[in-house]
Design a protein that fits this description.
This protein is mostly beta strands. Helix content is 0%, strand content 59%.
Length: 119
């Protein structure tokens, strides 16, 4: 069974920094990509950043230059370094991993971690 767990959320003042972690565990053969999504109250879930097996990354425009996604393959962990945080970054942040497990490829989601940016 595959599990994805996020950690690192919290409350931060505007302009501050925060790092989120996403750990995948279980019967994993390949992690094709790991991505961060976020959803604020009353809004649709949006893609924030993604990192692929070959290390390529992409970001939504609103976080380019402020957020950095990275990964540690040996630890099966992805990170989201968030700098220059803004109140509009407030949301529940979810990690989603596309994983080859046993004989299937599937998408696995974490439970989410709250990020609040407020003075």
């Amino acid at each position: 069974q595959v599990r994805v767990v996020e950690s690192g959320g919290g409350i931060m003042q505007p302009g501050g920094s925060l790092t989120l972690s996403c750990f995948a565990s279980g019967s994993i053969k390949v992690i094709y990509d790991m991505a961060w999504y976020r959803q604020d109250t009353g809004k649709e879930r949006e893609s924030v950043a993604r990192i692929f097996l070959d290390g390529r990354t992409n970001y939504t425009d609103s976080v380019k230059g402020r957020f950095t996604i990275s990964k540690d393959n040996a630890k099966r962990t992805a990170y989201l370094q968030m700098n220059s945080l803004k109140p509009e970054d407030t949301a529940v942040y979810y990690c989603r991993a596309r994983i080859f497990s046993e004989s299937t490829i599937g998408y696995y989601w974490g439970q989410g971690t709250q990020v609040t940016v407020s003075s």
